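Marked as duplicate of an earlier ticket. Keeping the data here for the record.
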Amino acid sequence: MSEVAERFTFHNEIDQICAMPWHRLSEGELVDAAWAYYYFSIQFRENLEIAAARHPHDRKLRQLVKEECNTANLSPFPGVAAAGEAMNHDEFMKRALALAPIASDKRARFEKLGQTYLAAIRAMDDETRAISISSYEDGGLESVFRAILTATHWNHPVLAAFKHFLVEHIRFDSDPDAGHGALSRHLPPDDRVQPIWARFRSIFVDFAPALGSAA
């Protein structure tokens, strides 16, 4: 995050996600956490689209949309994205998850949890959803991604693709002058986004209950 960023209570939610015992997750539990992130990635795209629609002449947001939506910047990746293939980042996650089978009852449970989560986010007002983008891009997600990467199991096909996603997004976000934080920082977040981050924390625990235990 920007060095001059004000501290809000939503930062406590970020800290709690980062403090989760990512390093103790089994391979299967980490795959389950990747499923949770897939649903987050859907609302991320939707929130970015809302922000861009609310500020149609904002060149920085237009650039951010180009780098997050219908883009080839995660390509190529075996079994997920062909060289030069453009897609939304949530589509990348969806394809990554399809690299491994999942039991039908577990899929149904995850879909129910995911749709409940999305419904809660979609019920929030558009301004809150729009300003969530800078809370994500200006350090929030980078911190979360670095925490997730402390996990130890990355050889599974789904997890190899998820790791590629995380590592590349850290690269996208971390440049202080040209990264995604710089493209969204002019829409500063405040504690209206705290419930959005609280939902993000809770969906991880819903999908991977081991994350709810002490680190």
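See parent ticket for discussion. The longest helix spans residues 27-54.
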